[in-house]
Structures are given as structure tokens and as C-alpha cells.
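This week, study the protein below.
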Amino acid sequence: MKDINLEFFKNLVESHGVSGFEQEIQKIYRKFVSPYSDKIETDIHGNVYAIKNGKSDFKLMICGHADEVGLMVNYITDKGFVYFKAVGGIDPTILPGQRVEIFHRNQKVRGIIGRKAVHLISPTERNNAPKIADLWIDIGAKSKEDAEKKIAIGDYVTFSPGMEILNDDIIVSKSTDNKVGVYIAAMVLKELKDENIDINLFSVSAVQEEVGLRGSTTSAYNIKPDAAIIIDVTHATDYPGITKSKAGDISLGKGPAIAIGASINPRIYDILIETCEKNKIDFQIEPTPSRSGTDTDAIQISRGGVATGLLSIPNRYMHTPGEVISLKDVDDTVKLLVNFVKNLKADVNLIP
């Protein structure tokens, strides 16, 4: 990655925005894509569309979602300890001891998720995974009144770890799911800045995917795309404990995973494969027999139907503060999409 691009990526993954509170991320996205777009729109839900005009009426939507999983303040005890609910899919076993940030009126309040120390846990408790109701956030408050000077019911909470490079192109960070998709959607625009393309490109940073594919549902309805490529992450299966006969064989560093299945338009799939082969881009195949669990499922059935494709970045330890991905896979996906867009013509036949 070029330094400026790595800086943009780092800004995205270290920004904070659980589902419904994506404003900080969208501000970063709008600023970056502004020089490369003919028009930028933000809709009533907070989805951002960066548009590059082409020579036809054909509309291609490239979509990543900006929101991340997190927590929300639910109750404050008389002693000032903070109980919370999950926003999106959170595994409670990874929460104890995690440092977090609570967002209150544009201020960040540091805290740590507490649980009884191992010495004080009964054998029964030790052998059972904790539940979210058993955990709390400690902000160092002396009382409920002290806590309420800094936070309030309904404030959202995110993990606080920043991005680090583990080795070569392997990085660890919170919220690569799916700031990586937002990054790729933006970078495709940047790389196409001086290209005359046949189709109209809508680079979309969508909201609220983690709570029900909501942003992609409304943005696809508004845009009315003829085709869409969705960018998300998928489970890497190259670490201990995975049964590949069940979970498939997806590895870091071997390129994006191209989905095939009921959610995917066969012609889009073929063109993506052909583009990889022609440009010597590494890729992997991900069988997706029914629902994909991504924005693809919503966009595919918008209005009268959309020809959809899905590209996923292999991700270890998804929905944790320490997601691990390969930047090579990210760069390969940008290269794939740039070539896909440059060669896509308005008269393409996408009927299966």
C-alpha cells in the first residue's frame, strides 16, 4: 500500500461507529472520495454515495458497509458501574478485560469491561462462558451521579485497540469488518479518476449492515442499480481448530474470495473470474449455496432484481477487537474491481 492509502485505511479502521452511529466514518469517507467523484450524496439513513459519471445510463453499485459491532449503555448502578447490550453479533467470552470507549456528546470516555477475577469465580462459573448480563464497564466512577456526569443511557461503545502491522502485509485491528469494504469502494474511485468509463459508478458506504442489512436495502432502492458488487469479509479457515470440510478452505494472502451460489448472478461471477485470470490476480472460490449473510442478500432482490456479485476479504477472528487480514488481499480486490469497471459495457448481457 502507498503511504497515503495506508493512512486512509488506518483512519477508517480506527474510527468508531457501531450500527446507527456511523457519522465519524462517513465524514472520513466523504473527504477522501471528494476529489475523485462527480457528485456525493448522503441519504436519510446516512448511506453515502460517491458517483462517477459514465457515458451511458447503466448503473453499477460497489458497496461496503461502514458500521461495526459494539455495545450500548443500558444501565448504571448506584456505584457507577455500567451495564450494556450488544449491537450486532458479539461473543461474550472475548469481552472481559477489553478496553473500550463510550461516546457521549462527541466526547470519548475510557473504560474496561469487568468480570470477577479468576480467583473469585466458582468452579461452575469457570466452566461456563460468561453472558453479557454478567459483565459491566468500569469507568472509574465513584457513584451513579459521578458516572452520569460523563455518560448516559443509550451511549454507544466500541473497542479501542488501534491498527498494528503483525508481519509484512498482515495487520490486526478492530472493525476490518467492514471498513475494508469502504476502503476498497473508495480506492476504486481513486484509481479510476482519469478513466472514461462506459457505466455510471456508485461507490457506496452503507450503514447498519450488522443489524439487518438496512443501509444496503434503502440505498439500492434509491440508486436502482443494474448491477452491484458487494465487498465484505469472510471467515479465513487457515488457523487451528477449523474443520475445512465444513467451513471451506479460505486463506489469508491468496486473494479475494469470489462467492458462487443463489445470491450471485452467474454472468457477474464469470466476468469476475475472467478478469482475475486475464490480469493474473489471485482469487479463491467461496461456495455460498443460499444466503450470504451480507448486503448481497438485500441488494439482489431490490425492486425488480439486481445482478449481484460478492467479493470477500479473508478475515481471522471476526467480530473481535483483533481481526486479522492481509493487505495483499485488499490490493488484489482493488485491482480486480478497477479492471472489472474499466471493461464493463452498458450493453453487457447479465441474463443467466
Notes: The mean pLDDT is 96.
